Amino acid sequence: MRESVVDIAGQKLRLVEEGTGETVLFLHGAGGLNWYPLLQSLSRHRRVIAPEHPSWGRSAVPEWLSSVGDLAFFYLDLLEALDLRGVHLVGHSMGGWTAAELAIRSTVRLASLSLMAPAGVAAPDTPFGDIFHWSPEEHTRRSFHDQAFAEARLRKLSESDPELMRRNRAAAARLGREPLLVNPQLRYWLHRIDVPALLVWGVEDQICPFAARRDYLASIAGVELFALPRTGHALHTEGAQAVSDRLDAFFDAAAGRRYSAAVSDRTDSA
To answer: In what helix (H) or strand (E) does residue 51 lie, and over which residues does it extend?
Structure first.
């Protein structure tokens, strides 16, 4: 695992990456950046890049950052600055919301889009969990269906830097507190997503409930759904191997479609 700091349009950004091959860009959720078991698994076959969002961790709060849409524009700048093409964009929770906001703006550098229990669009009858009112312990317990994972995470939580946790919580609240983890306009623009798309969701999710899948499924052309029974919100840990296997297969299929389209274009032009 390699760490680096890059400058994107004047913003210092911490990156963690591992692996070689096609690029997977992973956008983390409200809790901040960790090298999750899912990322380790994906890095066996591809280059996985995981940035730490501006204002999370030790980074300063940029004056331009006031919405998840701003964060999406920033990551479009990152794709251009690093000249990343054919990217498999994966986002979890608030990172999934960010990935969707990015994709409605431009998919020119994307090969595929995978949204893991994304925030951004809630079901009218099933609001998102109010993570900003929960204690760290309650948040952790509600993140997992299998409480054995929660207990393991809680043991690590006691070793965490409380100041870093406070900063990450404040950063998430700045972008997602009001309205709660939602952009009311996002649902109207999901139809603009024109790359292969996959929804990954834990059926027992207590933070971004499974019911929230409906607008994503109804609005994104050809989107696939991978639902994990007996799994909660922390898919990257609780369902790491199953999610990794499904993502690898999805990436392979997306790359195959892109290759076929390129061959077809060359044939047509000839």
So the answer is: strand 47-51
